[in-house]
Amino acid sequence: MFDPETAQASGIRAEWWDLLFFLILGVIISLAIRLAGTLLVFAFLVVPAVTGLLLSQRLGRIHAIAIGAASAATAGGLYASVKMDLPSGPAIVACSFALLLIAWVVSRFR
Questions:
Q1: N or C end of the chain: which has fewer CB within 10 A?
Q2: Same domain, 76 and 106
Q3: What helix, strand, coil percent values describe the chain, rounded to 5?
Q4: What is the per-residue pLDDT across 57-107, written as a single tens digit (0 to 9) for each?
Q5: 29 plus 60 within the same structural domain
Q6: Which helix (H) or strand (E) covers residue 20, if one does?
Q7: How far apart are CA 43 and CA 94, in angstroms?
């Protein structure tokens, strides 16, 4: 996916792997929307990645930050949901958005 020319030169049929990846991704997203809701799925797809991009330039660090931000938002949202008797999906999204705002402020001061 990242370098289709090199994959083609190596004899790998990258277009089939891309097609398989996008088919699996589409099925997973459509199932997740039915199970968890549109807002939560969209937030998990976009907000942790943007948080990672705001805080780093290196791909490995972006992945680690995104995973950490999603995990922290999930734990914080579920904790807030239990303590304040809130719906869990919006509480997780609110925590994820709060982490995004913190990352944005930190990135502005760097």
A1: C
A2: yes
A3: 85, 0, 15
A4: 999 999 999 999 999 999 999 999 999 999 999 999 999 999 999 999 999
A5: no
A6: helix 14-36
A7: 9
